[in-house]
Write a structure and sequence with these properties.
Strand content: under 5%
Radius of gyration: 20 Å
Number of helices: 5
């Protein structure tokens, strides 16, 4: 191995890929490969959570500020739903997170924070008022 993981992770990754493809198993940096795969999984989970929080924050703004509804909110809601659907299609194992009450509460707290900070909303529900199916449905908007 000519590039240390700590010195240049991109060059290191390129070398690891070349070693994998050429079957040079003994030269692989297994510990760091495992670490990178774990980090990748964490990153995908964070991406899903971030998109869900943005989506639900916008649904809150839509529901609680009807006078400010506009095309940009619709665009953001649609874009987040499409990207969430794409993530779940590519990585269906992420769907189990949506059944995790602790994960859902964390994401809901992020959505509430965004709605409070971005729109100055208050007196918002402590729990998500919509079903997961409604949140993800392409045509659903709360009234």
């Amino acid at each position: 191995m000519s590039t240390a993981y700590e010195d240049d992770v991109v060059a290191w990754a390129d070398e690891q890929v070349a070693l994998l493809r050429s079957g040079q198993w003994a030269l692989l940096d297994i510990e760091h490969i495992a670490e990178e795969i774990e980090d990748m999984n964490i990153s995908h989970r964070h991406q899903l959570g971030h998109r869900m929080a943005i989506l639900m924050g916008h649904l809150l703004k839509w529901q609680y500020q009807p006078e400010r509804r506009g095309a940009s909110w619709i665009k953001t809601i649609r874009e987040q739903r499409e990207r969430i659907a794409s993530l779940l299609k590519k990585m269906p194992s992420l769907r189990h997170l949506m059944d995790d009450p602790e994960w859902n509460q964390e994401i809901w707290a992020d959505a509430l924070s965004a709605a409070i900070l971005q729109a100055g909303l208050s007196d918002l529900p402590e729990a998500r008022p919509w079903s997961l199916e409604q949140v993800l449905a392409l045509d659903y908007l709360p009234s």
